[in-house]
Amino acid sequence: MKCNGMEGDSDLQFLLQGGDLLKVLSPSWKKTRYFRLMEDCKTIWRESKRTFKDSTTFSLDDISAVRMGRQSEGLKKNTKDQVEGRCFSIMFKGRRKNLDLIASSEEEAKQWFTSLQKVLSNRNHLNVQQKTEHCLRKADKNKDDKMTQSELKNFLRLINIKVDDDYAEMLFKVAPSELFEGFLHKCDKSKSGQLAGEEIEHFYDLLTHREEVDVIYGTYAKTTGFMSPQNLVAFLMTEQREKVTLADAQNIIQKHEPDDNAKEKKLLSKDGFLMYMHYPEAMVLHPDHREVYQDMSRPLNHYFISSSHNTYLMEDQLTGPSSTEAYVRALLKGCRCVELDVWDGSDDEPEIYHGYTLTSKILFRDAIKSIKEYAFKTSDYPVILSLENHCSVEQQEVMARHLSSILGSALVTSPLGEGMPTDFPSPEELKGKFLIKGKRLNKLEASYAPEAAESDDTDVTEEDESNNEDEDEQKEEEKRKMKKKLKLAKPLSDMVVYCKSVHFTGFEDARRKLSFYEMSSFKEKKALGLAEESANAYIHHNMDKLSRIYPSGSRTDSSNYNPVPLWNAGCQIVALNFQTTCTDMDVNQGRFLVNGKSGYVLKPAFMRDVATEFDPITLTRGAWLKHKTLHVLVISAQQLPKVNKKKSSIVDPLVKVEVYGVPADVAERQTAAVGNNALGALALEVQCPSHDVGWLVERRLFQQGAGVMPLLLLELLLLELLLLLLLVSRIFGPAAAAVGRLSAVLQPRGAAAAVGAAAPAAVVPGLDHAHCSRYSVKAAPAAVK
């Protein structure tokens, strides 16, 4: 048994031995079950205590998190406070229900929690080679350290390669020339009908051979077939455009070189080089941008803000479950604006759910507790609580009490500094703080109403969940006037400082009548119409105010919309359904992957310049306009996940490259699908001009300062987002896509032939923030589907 270096670890031994835990389903259903980790160090096995015992298993890879204490809805509802320290929950990916458990003592609960956390962390750090070796061990059913043909077939199936009997026999005895460039390698040298020892290693080497990496490695491995620290520095500086020292190169060798002899001599083997290229250090994302690197001292509305819609939902908005776990997941992804849809609940406790539907309910106070605990785990920068308030005055006061008692001094209840502010504070000034977005009594009413006063709007809610997208403005106005006038509790009103919600009546009205802290929310269709018809006016509106965009009420399946056109118009809070994995969420996650995953990305200078004439639709002339050409050659992809979760399913991968930006820049190309292959080097053929070895995407870019950038995205959306996110199969999710030779440092139009001729084969240039010069052999597993 091998568990990635954990052999003999006390926490691992605890899990392998296992023990009894109380499984909780309801206040009356609590049953003892025996749990233990199986010898593969991947599978948890559970057995009941009934006379006719049954057992089930689940994989560690299916676990998204382990939570200590009564944090899940099930434990809060079905257990009492006295067992708080003995409880823990296993949270699963996807739609599988949580596993709520109670240990016999607090010490035992902590041991389970600590041990599971350690093993999960260990699995998350497995590299591609280690995962493949793990599959080899798993395929060895009788654990005799030998592999029969049927076991090898099972191994290939585990890594997404399907073979029939004839093909398996051919691969078992001789490596097919079409896969291994004509080299015939016999694995079964002993002619025993099974592989053992070096034969298995040889089989593995054949299967994982990466010729495209050989070419790159061979160019710089000048020291007797190895890379010296000096060779590695040359590669990193020439191809990756990284600023590194000899000490940096030596650290990389010490971290990634698997051969102890090579490591002792400070040399990097091909295996070590490949391991390095699979680690985050080699991502196309600029290394400096994994940390906060932008100016965070500008007003809050100068930033794009990662934002969630219906944050409390785990699934669709008709029948899906509401959960505090949904807030936890969004916040851990860096979301900085979450939504709370609050209604009157029983026992005078406000509840959160999607009104007039069959979604389940959670307590408002539980949601605030979860938000408080996880708000600043990923980012220190402020969190906006967007309140959709449907409550009576009495329960609004309960809301205010919970906000005050739970969030304490972290809740902003008055303007920062002395006197009335004239602009937003910065994210830096608001670190660790919570802002409330909602309705607020006007100053006069707030001054004279001891308990409550009418809102300056006819209702205290803001989002319109109507499915009728075609109502004109007159009907909308009549509808608002007909709404029952609700009262707004002063304690809750007073908590709204920098994000006062008001109805939008036009850009000119907003400019003349609204203060900087008064903001509007726009349904997606309305916002997209403004972004297309009045983009420059929208950009100017967002220079001194905040705008929030939310999905149409017709999206009952919690689907999403493309956020890019709204970012193009300078909209800061473009709220998406984080619970739905899709291309739109991929783009959103990519946008906020930079700047240390802080959830705040500084808008381009031309979107903050009061004199700007920029229009993403008409592409007005200006300093931002600069023509560039981008060439991309996709070399290979590997370890693609299965679309179908069935063990027998096989991936036929393809790679799609999509460019997002202003309408003139939108483009996509894709390779041909490669049948029956998800592990090794793929022949990803694309149509291309005869003078270029890759294929061409020719787009406009826009300039900010000394750097070249696509509209709206400081990080060069073309590469730092798209080649980070979307240079993977759309089946696809967390693919480790090898991006070979993203060749052509961006050139002016008309230079395509020169670029193709000048770029040496299989070289891997890269892209940096200012000069478009950093690339990588590997795209990141940026979004899980």
Automatic annotation (TrEMBL):
EC number: 3.1.4.11
Key word Transmembrane present: yes
PROSITE patterns named in the record: EF_HAND_1, EF_HAND_2, PH_DOMAIN, PIPLC_X_DOMAIN, PIPLC_Y_DOMAIN
Glycosylation sites: 190
Keyword Membrane: yes
Localization in the cell: Cytoplasm
Residue numbers binding substrate: 437, 439, 521, 548
Superkingdom of origin: Eukaryota
Cofactor: Ca(2+)
Residue sites binding Ca(2+) 3 per the record: 310, 339, 341, 388
A cellular component annotation (GO) from this entry: plasma membrane
Residues bound to Ca(2+) 4: 650, 652, 676
Any one biological process term the GO annotation gives: lipid catabolic process
Biased composition (Acidic residues): 453-475
All residue ranges annotated as the EF-hand domain in the record: 127-162
The record's free-text note on cofactor binding: Binds 3 Ca(2+) ions per subunit. Two of the Ca(2+) ions are bound to the C2 domain.
GO molecular function: calcium ion binding; phosphatidylinositol-4,5-bisphosphate phospholipase C activity
Alphabetical UniProt keywords: Calcium, Cytoplasm, Glycoprotein, Hydrolase, Lipid degradation, Lipid metabolism, Membrane, Metal-binding, Repeat, Transducer, Transmembrane, Transmembrane helix
Region annotation Disordered: where it falls in the sequence: 447-485
Domain PH: 14-121
Transmembrane segments annotated in the record for this chain: 708-728
Domain PI-PLC Y-box residues, every copy: 492-608
Catalytic residues as annotated in Swiss-Prot or TrEMBL: 309, 354
PANTHER family named among the record's database cross-references: PHOSPHOINOSITIDE PHOSPHOLIPASE C, PHOSPHOINOSITIDE-SPECIFIC PHOSPHOLIPASE C FAMILY PROTEIN
Name the UniProt record assigns to this protein: Phosphoinositide phospholipase C
Originating organism: Liparis tanakae
Gene giving rise to this polypeptide: PLCD1_1
